[in-house]
Amino acid sequence: MERPLLEVQDLHVHYKTDDGTARAVNGIDFSIHRGETLGLVGETGAGKTTTALALLGLVPHPPGKITGGRILFQGENLLEKSGKELRRLRGNRISIIFQDPMTSLNPLFPAGKQIAENLTLHQNLPPREALKKAGELLARVGIPASRSGNYPHEFSGGMKQRVVIAMALACNPALLIADEPTTALDVTIQAQILEILRDLKEDFGLSLLMISHDLGVVAEVADRVAVMYAGDIVETGSVGQVFEEPRHPYTIGLLNSLPDIDAPRGESLQPITGLMPDPMELPRGCSFAPRCPRVMPVCEEQKPPVFSPDQGRGVRCFLYHQTGGQP
Amino acid sequence: MTAPLVELVGLQKYFPAKEGILKAVDGVSLQIHQGETLGLVGESGCGKSTTGKLLVRLLDPTAGQIRYRGRDITSLKTPEESRKFSRTVQMVFQDPYSSLDPRMSVGEIIEEPLRVHRLFPARRERQQRIRQLMDYAGIAGRLINSYPHELDGGRRQRVGIARALALDPEFLVLDEPVSALDVSIQAQIINLFQTLQQELSLTYLFIAHDLSVVHHVSTRIAVMYMGEIVETGSADEVIRDPRHPYTEALVSAIPRVKNRGTRTRIILQGDVPTPVDPPPICRFYGRCPKAMDQCRRPVELLTSASNRPVRCIREEQ
């Protein structure tokens, strides 16, 4: 099998604060193959965004620090790269889009110029050629090239997000990280953006890391899914495996919390009781143990390893210790 | 059929804007019956929140009537009358972070409406009432002296709910009450609303953009677009058999976790427009995948064969 484009191994990210150490990411492993979309889902504070920032070498330091692990991108460990080398990668081989497009846009420059900047910086294109290509990229995301001279405030929210996508794709990246790219948008605009991402992924042969709290959005675009909880990836598998036959009690709980529009009305939802633990005071054993309806004594003693109850799936839960999974 | 608890008749709210008149709510007529939940859905700027604010009299309408138990409440004369009305109708806001005073403790926040309305003047009884309200909303008693910043989003929303219940209202306007919450917490709060509705025989107007949530909680659903109601019906009718092309597109755009890829997705072109001086044609004309030349005229809510009001000329045929 071909080597994955991105391999994250045993990644740890901690934030040091006056009150203690927040263990935001606690030894996660995942990989993304060429042309594949991995959906990273989880609730607020699960560590999704920290993971994305770590991939780009953008964890704010201090207070944050990558305290262990490896991030192999095209076989090279990004954690051993210098700031200069990382700057050469970002916006070039790896791009990111955030929830709020204004995180990435400068209000003082026209959209086309900002896209062109990326091309002159990373590909040494002469300014005029870069601007021309910026116009083509805008057209590719559904904005007439004639609007290349417009400033960010002259675009609507959905249009701004399109500009950011054009900018992210300017240098033909191998990996696009999309962190809640449609969360701030209306449903009909969200549908437009998801459609664009699906199209571009195919045209550009992109690998996509789609981060979202919205299980539906991830289900629509991802090939595989990783479910994150309190700094751990608790379950991975294909979209079908994770969303249709979830194994981890947290994944099961999440899906039961969600109103299903195709189900008959009148059944009440089954929420997960309690709250996600404070990352400064994570439980000793399984981080989900305090809320888990199927908790066993061992879960409070030690952190479960990843078991593989079926092909292509990983579950960090002792329930699957007996069922053929290997530690 | 019994008379509706709340009735909106030709309700309008216009705001002056730089480019003209923003017709945020433009001739909305709705009925809400006792004990039901009416879901009001639509995208940002469609006028759903403005409608909610008009209902609790946070805004005064430009024209039209709001009848509560048959009585027009847009022209309450005395402060006494207003006060009485505000006891029966309360609102829960989307953002528990900004609708709670950061300098007040949980107990003080819940107590405030009781003080303002001079209910439970005896301190002991008032404290009892606060405990009871916290109990209703599922807030642990030990949190009575906590401040909003010490609580997570779900608990903050529970405080907002306890405050809304303080005056023993009959009718609650819930404006995106679970949109800011994580899925597992969202489910807790949705269940809480349903339990409270039964225990306290409440009537809800549930305003939200998330159709799955609205379908789950609502008896009936009204869909709003650019200040107008475009379709109403039972929750199942509107979701399973949408008649207006906008509703159809909305329903098809919901990202689904189950039954992925089993339906055709209708992708609307263009942005959600703002109703500033809208031309006198169907307001969905510019984005409608089924638009025809005949749509270039004002369209009323038409009652189709299925006895559901739909604002689309295709219902005439």
UniProtKB/TrEMBL annotation, chain B:
Q: Does the keyword Zinc apply?
A: no
Spell out where the chain crosses the membrane.
none
Taxonomy, superkingdom: Bacteria
Q: Which Gene3D superfamilies match?
A: P-loop containing nucleotide triphosphate hydrolases
Ordered alphabetically, the record's keywords are: ATP-binding, Nucleotide-binding, Transport
Q: What GO MF terms are annotated? A: ATP binding; ATP hydrolysis activity
Q: Name one Pfam family in it.
A: ABC_tran
Which processes are annotated in GO (biological process)? Answer: peptide transport; transmembrane transport
**Has the keyword Aminoacyl-tRNA synthetase been applied to this entry?**
no
> Which InterPro entries does the record cross-reference, listed alphabetically?
AAA+_ATPase, ABC_transp_ATP-bind, ABC_transporter-like_ATP-bd, Oligopep_ABC_C, P-loop_NTPase
ABC transporter domain: which residues? Answer: 6-251
- Cross-referenced NCBIfam families: oligo_HPY (TIGR01727)
Spell out the family assignment given in the record's similarity comment.
Belongs to the ABC transporter superfamily.
- Quote the PANTHER family the UniProt record gives: D,D-DIPEPTIDE TRANSPORT ATP-BINDING PROTEIN DDPF-RELATED, TRANSPORT ATP-BINDING PROTEIN
Task: Tell me what this protein is called.
Answer: Peptide ABC transporter ATP-binding protein
Source organism of the structure: Alkalispirochaeta sphaeroplastigenens
